[in-house]
Amino acid sequence: MPKPDSLKTMTALFLIMLIIPFVINCFFAYPQTDDFVYSVAARSQGFFKAQYDCYINWSGRFTSTALLSINPLVYDSLAGYRLVFAILIVAQLASLYLLTDVLTKRTLSWKEKLVFSLTLLFAFLDQMDDLRSGLYWMAGVVTYQVAETMMILWLSLVLLINQDQKYNNVQNKGAVVVLSIFLGGTNEIVLSLTFLFSVLLISYQYALKKTATRFHVVTFMAVATGSCFGLFAPGNFARMKSDYDTHKDISAIAWNAFKGSLASIEVWMTYPLTLILMTMVFCTVISRPRLKAIFCSIKVLYSMCILLFLIFLSFFIPYLGTGMYPQNRVLNMIYFFFMIGWMINLAVIFAKFGEPALVFLKKIPVKRWSMVAAAFVIVLFSLQTSNFVMVTKDLLSGDSLRYSAEMRQKQSQIMQCATDHCTSEDVTTRPASLYFYFIGFDSQHWVNRGYAAYFGKKSISLAKKNP
Q1: CB 187 within 8 A of CB 143
Q2: Are 222 and 177 in contact (CB under 8 A)?
Q3: What does the domain layout of the chain look like in residue ranges?
Q4: pLDDT for 312
């Protein structure tokens, strides 16, 4: 029998091996659509003019726009473009580790926190709704994945400052204030959740101590300032008038958001990896009296209501803005937030009812029901789709490599094209795991125009095949 510490090490290494294919696949991604548009705008107009034009005419997501205006493509670095995705995976792991450390108040060893963070990250990567736009497309990654990582960092720092006087310093407070402003310019869901969390935190502190500290007031004001800059941007209203119906039935939107959120929660809760995480939380809380005491102070009803409201709000905002079900890249982000919130709620539930549940479990014949449980999990795994399987298949089959080589070849052909009006053959290799939206036959389509402008051509289109 391996020792517990050795078992944790082996588990961590196994989880890292499961995540590595996602990282390797990053280096075969190729830019598409908005990646070229933002890069061209930044190169042709300059950074500040591009921000002004976007804020006035298109979007209030000033943080996401700024990051996209300095992305590696602006400097013709495809390697840097791909490296950003790999760095993001590491940053997400670091943010989950920090949040786990803060929520458990350092009652777990670093290996235990690492194993839990790796498991949660793998569950997210394996089951996110659309891996292509969620991990291998710069515009989607910056707007949603970077935003959610920034928000987790912000929340962790706020809790850490409140929790431990050692971290109550100018550097951490300054980082919180800066993040508070910038989070309002990422996307509308993060904006709303950050504002809601800041209200909850300042209300909790006031209810607890009958006063609000200067730090909490400044944080709230910074969140409100960033939110106002993001929400009331002229570009938001211009875009809504041109792209979306502004006459909406709020009650119908709320009902659709309610149904959509409940349906997604039902699916997300029954993922096999979610059940494994659930077991990990149960065993950890039950075996740690100090951890149990931390989560026992939270009321189950309050924590569940907050989680349900946050998920409902995350569905309501896309419905309100577009009148449609959230896009896949938006669902990725909502799933990430749900997983974190659900694990916290499970810790609260198990802290309250874990002992009776343990007594009940001890009465169940282990040999008989362990086989049933194992069979149940195997069936669930066989029925679900897996991004890990999809990515591994693309890597082992060589599809990712062939796709990357083909896209580089087409890029070279376009750059060497003798005229300003170029044509290109269609792409033949299209990996299921990598984001793809190539040019079409219409040279005036916005995707074609962005692609042409990036490579210094007047027009680019697909070559029409002979009958």
Answers
A1: yes
A2: yes
A3: 233-363, 398-462
A4: 96
